[in-house]
Structure formats: structure tokens, C-alpha cells
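Give me the fold.
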Amino acid sequence: MNMQSLSLKIFALVALFSAILTSCTPDPEPPVDPIGPAISLEFGGVIDTATVPIDSSFVVRVKADAGDGAITRIEVQENGALLSDLDRIFFDGDPAGGNPSPIPAADSAGFTWDITIVASSTPDETNTYTIRIVDSNGKSDDVSVEITTVDPTTPVEIKTAYLLLNAGGPAGTGGLDLHSGDGTGSFTDSTDLRDMGIDINQPLASNWIQKISTDGLTTGAVLKVPAAGLDYDAVTTQEQVIAAYEAGTTVVGASDKVEIGDLFLVYSEDPGSEFSYFLLKVVDINITTNNNQDYYEFEVKQ
């Protein structure tokens, strides 16, 4: 056997051995994509949308669970950008030290936190707030809520059994002080609303005119009837009372004949009272036939 033949045989054996080794080497495992964290909104906070007063705080309760990696940080976004004013963020009751903020080791496997956020200072706008968590593998998840901000409101105070008596009755009656609820004479320094008395040309049983007015009062009170469609029960804030007054029509002289269910609005200032706007509903009318002690009964929202 010459050297050339020997070399060819050796080369063939090496090639065969390499092929055997190659065929026996297992294929590499495909890369594994780690499971990321999960975050969800929980009851006890805003779930989807909410309307809040400007500069007030709202709570988003979140439940976070780790995937294959530990949860390492949490962040709050406003309309897609990190909320930079840390005074507006509280993580589970604690002021935010940063945004993003690191997750304590004790909570890295999961937690349920109340995220408190101070809303915008601008009324009548809607902002999207996103809570995002990130884990050690760079995986993330997030949830969002929409918050609409409005000017703050003040609930009405409701007063009942305010009585305005027939001005043709006993002396010292015929007027009503809306600030105190007390009856007064028709024209005193505290009279905010007065009855128009009787028609002396009519018999006693039917002589009550049954109309009201603010004309001639030294308090400067103004009487209005509301715009059509005002729902008394839907008026729950002082701001609504003021808006209803501004939309109402001023009564010139005296009102139409007053009936149960009628609504009236009165503006009257009193330095000793915090209220100047009043929404009145006639809940009862007591008519007498022999003594002119008739009266209207009002419920008042102020």
C-alpha cells in the first residue's frame, strides 16, 4: 500500500468518525421566554373611571404577582409620562421616594397596595393614570384608570317646616326670615319673603290672595321662578342652587297663585349667615275659612 492510498483511508476514517460524533450531539434547547409579572385592579379603589374634585386624592388598589423574576420596581404615569411631582404619589400609605420606586424585598414576590394619587388642579379634564410594575428580567405589566377632575361642590343643607303666614292674619306675621326659618312681620329688617295678604273685596272664606313677593323688602331679597324642568330632588349641592337661581326668571311684583309643588328661588344676603341662595319647594298649603291664619309650608335647600 502506497502512502497516497493510506492517506486517503485515514482521511475517510476521520470523516466517518466526525459524522458519527456530529449525529450523536443533541440539539441545543430553544431559549426560554421568562414569565413576566401580573398586576390587576382590586375593589377598594378606582376600578375604571372616576370623577373627583380638583386637587383631591383618589386611591387605586392593585394586586401584583411575580412571574419568573422578582418584582423590582413600580411606577406611576400620567397620560403616558412618569408623574414627576412626588408629592402627588403615595405607595401603600408612604410618600413616594421616587418614581419609579424600588420594591422592598419582602414584597418582591407579590403584594396588594393602595396607590394614592393627588388629582390634577385643572377642572373639566380627564387624565389617564397608569400603574406599571417591572421585574428582574425586564418584564412588565400595567393597569390604567381614567380620572375626570371637576370644581369642588358643597352639599346643600335642607330645612323643613318653614312657615309663611297670611299677611292678613295676626300682627307680626306675613313674612319669613329664610336665614333663621322664623316668621316675621311683612316688612322688617330680617324679612326675606312676604305674603301678599288678602283681597278685602272677597268674603273671609276665600279672601287670601295666595301670592308671595320680595318687593319693598329692606333686605334686598330677590324672588325668582326656576327655568322649566328644574328637578328639585336632583339639586344636591349649593353650586346647583346658585346655578338654578342664575338661570331663573325674576318675579316682578308678586308671583302667580302659589300651589303645592311650586318651586321658588330667593337671593338674600345676611352678614350673620353663610347662605345667600335658597331653593324653596311648597310642600303644603293650609287654608282656613274663618280667621286668615292661612300659611304655606316650605322645604328649603340652601
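The first helix runs from residue 3 to 24.
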